[in-house]
Queue: 2 jobs
Job 1
Amino acid sequence: MTSVAIDRVFNFSAGPAVLPEPVLRRAQEDIWNLAGTGIGILEHSHRGKAFGAVLEEAEALCRKVGNIPDNYKVFFMQGGATSQCYLVPANLLGQGKTADYFRTGKWAKDSVKEARFYGTAHVCYDGEPDNFRHLPTPDEISHSDNPVYVHFTSNNTIMGTQWAEEPACPDGAFLVSDACSDIFSRPIDFTRYGLVYAGAQKNLGPSGTSLVVVREDLLENPPRELPMMQSYKLCAEKGSMPNTPPTFGIYLMGRVFDWILSEGGLEEMERRNRAKAELVYGALDATSEFFECHAREDSRSLMNVTFKTGDPELDARFVAEADTNGMNGLKGHRSVGGMRASMYNAFPREGADQLAQFIRDFAQKNG
Amino acid sequence: MTSVAIDRVFNFSAGPAVLPEPVLRRAQEDIWNLAGTGIGILEHSHRGKAFGAVLEEAEALCRKVGNIPDNYKVFFMQGGATSQCYLVPANLLGQGKTADYFRTGKWAKDSVKEARFYGTAHVCYDGEPDNFRHLPTPDEISHSDNPVYVHFTSNNTIMGTQWAEEPACPDGAFLVSDACSDIFSRPIDFTRYGLVYAGAQKNLGPSGTSLVVVREDLLENPPRELPMMQSYKLCAEKGSMPNTPPTFGIYLMGRVFDWILSEGGLEEMERRNRAKAELVYGALDATSEFFECHAREDSRSLMNVTFKTGDPELDARFVAEADTNGMNGLKGHRSVGGMRASMYNAFPREGADQLAQFIRDFAQKNG
């Protein structure tokens, strides 16, 4: 530990999480005076020209980043994915109908619970007996007869598991993805989905705003009347503005989309994310007599690496010593314990390098 | 018009609206590195110590600003007041029960509509026949027999009307106030209320976060089971964190509360707001052969001054010329037309002075 003031540390937080530094620098300016208007981004009317341009650009850049087809609506909503847990069935699941859910972690469990307010949630795979260490192989999946949709969590932040690719979807149903923690971390083919949603606070921006991408025909016949702020249809029709939207969140997401494009797009994000994850998993595999990964090898996440020593006191020392060495936020979620290294798009490779070295040194010193 | 770059203009926007400049300056720093942690406020985990301190301070400062009694819960929610339109009856109105609503403008109308998803909304006063130009005198109010609560909008942003004090409440009921556009613009006695809510984007912070203050006994027996993110009880129990909260909105509200206290608290806010409003109403009254105020004199808002010439072309010229002179956002809401000058807590007196002079000059030049 030194007494020199720290400017920026390596932030392994699972979310809210590290943002690209050029985006932060730009936000510092725009908070005072956006585009020479003499008014900061937080203070601009959502009905004015300046914010209109921000919103339009955010949507256009999002479509460009994700190569989103024209028959998909893209809009921004208040709140995070826990709101989407009920908004999905509220907007897409009629009373008496069934949707299939992959129960692969905490957020998937919450989604199952909330769906039951609106229809029937059939669990087509339950990862709990295995403590959510792996994602299913095809023989472990059991669909209901006629599901409206099939819901899965593309990356399980707490467990550190990630689908290598989206699950197959029965005929007549459509796929819904909770992509909170890996949206735009790699290329995604939206034509395989009916709906993709993501809270912003991992790969996209600040907490409090969500991105929703939905095939437009799915909004045509809502199964029930809903309060204004719960309606996908209204939000899509009003271009993300059924009321005053979370303007700063939308602004910041636009800046992040711009940053992704300027860095080379989703292929480049995947290349970097894979390289960072390989550094850390490589160090863990090389010290496997000392560290154990929570996720089964075939289900490992590129976003969140979960591991432990098996000794809670030693885990705590790992977290504390890493923090002293400029690596913050490595404590695992209480339900899994141990450590978790979250390395989203904006997380720098140097941080992964430093963690990998620290893992080796720690194992050697304490092994 | 000059070609010199404008740094900051007078921002009369109805919301999102002008914020205190010291708060913006501080936010610029904290976005990069909060309190020497080496991590910006947007990037801090909501479960970490740094944000924990931010949240705790925001609540404590809010209680201090509002002199909020201990038997009231204070929490922050995702979204704005349009969400509260349905959250209030969802959490407080049992099926088959009735709540009374003062229908005094657009937001009040929306509240009535949303309440009908959960119970019966009785309109105890309807301002529409008068085009919402005034708030009711006691003889214009007709309560239902046994309302659970009485809902009113303390300031009608679009109409430019404001209750001088809260309405009387029938025995056995409690008052609910949508205080979006005048919260903390003057002292408020919370003991007269069951619930007060406000979207942040006028007097408190950025859009996308709401403040809720509620008497704790009202949360004890919720009338129905609700999805997690709709439950006041859960949000109160979890200290604003049933899930990842809108961390930046909460941070910024804390900074604004701190600013209010440092400037002298709510008495001083009211003194300033009254002085600003008097300047502008004074100019309008002095040119009443040219300008007409929308609100009846006894119902005039200190926050939003609504007025017009009666000639839409002349109104448009007023707005455009004011803009050229560094006064932005004066166009009235489309449902009322004409002009609207919104002057919340952070709006500087110099801007009101300049507008008052501009009103006199414009009337003289065009009268």
Job 2
Amino acid sequence: MIPPDHPRYRSLLVRERLAWFADQGVVSPEGLAAHGRGEAFDYLLGERTTGSALLAERTAAAMLLAARHPVISVNGNTAALAAREIHDLQRATRAVVEVNLFHRSPERIQKVTRLLEGHGVDVLDGDEERLIPVSHDREWSHRDGAAAADAILVPLEDGDRAEALVSMGKKVIAIDLNPLSRTARAATLTIVDEVTRAIPEITRAAGDLTAGECEKLISRVDNSYFLHAALDEIARRLSHALD
Amino acid sequence: MIPPDHPRYRSLLVRERLAWFADQGVVSPEGLAAHGRGEAFDYLLGERTTGSALLAERTAAAMLLAARHPVISVNGNTAALAAREIHDLQRATRAVVEVNLFHRSPERIQKVTRLLEGHGVDVLDGDEERLIPVSHDREWSHRDGAAAADAILVPLEDGDRAEALVSMGKKVIAIDLNPLSRTARAATLTIVDEVTRAIPEITRAAGDLTAGECEKLISRVDNSYFLHAALDEIARRLSHALD
């Protein structure tokens, strides 16, 4: 349907993939729109991992390795785009993986869980309770999931829940292409990068870092630096965009 | 499902509306993602009509009024978001309205057509031919539609087709929130504004402009100015975004 000579072929293919997962009930329709928002920011960043994003990814690895109870919170889009990458990161960090959906239904939770398990991810199951103080369905967590985390990786997070998790005293690591989003501002550390590029870099760093390097990276976490670096990169690219 | 106290309530409601139209088969899943891209740029522009966009809207009205055979090309997203606004613009400019879909099927064409007709739009029907030189389904046009236009308004256009229409010698008026898109660069005139804000402004200007004002606006069309003005606005807002 999409001709290979179309200049935005790759981006359109990823959209088709998400559209297929939407058809399967893994991705919500609103998740497709959220993906498009991310596409726009990725486009402005040059669709590559910047130097500051790579540093954020190494810092994220250090925070997950140093945590007592690291958790990875996965939604529909993340599962559709990066189930295999989540598996590799879980192996490298021994993190608990929990499914958490904005547009929640028992069927969607089951579908996202099955997709992850199909890629070898060990997904937390059992009863959930309303443990996160937000006014929508993302309040649900297992006792051993987000509620118990000291460090939590939230790819593609909602701003409300990011703020709630921070207010609970957790170290929140966001992956968000929009450096101005509430999630990006609220998080302890924001990785401004595309999720399928970001997660493998965290995994790679988790296999590389020494204990001393981890300590140094953690002692220097400065979210404001990472947000400004991303904005500067966008502004720099915009100023040359029509040359 | 979305709580009214959510800070992005309005944006999420519009997404829900599009998701509903996707469920009805009017909007394609890829259209939802494309909407998200637009949302991100609108956010960067402050979700309002800038001064330069308003000038572009008045210029678009002048071009449609001066045309011998003005056409408005409507896709699924435009119909879902702005069917009533298209009706008003058609009345003000006596333009031909034609449905043209990237993800084309006879059923979707019928659904989009019915939605427009339900809002009083007079939609071109009858046989279509492969009249626009692009390598995908947007090549189809009626003899009296895009193929015959001297000026054509293309809200939310694909870059390929925008370039093809320009290469056919037509005056192409794009509505595109991304000032760097191929559509925005290829068009004769680009309105960098959200479609439900842009179309009523074109309609209003079409009712206001004198023949002398139209002539003056048309003589000064400079697409590069409008693209630079939008980029400058984004850069200006980014530089203060984290203050």
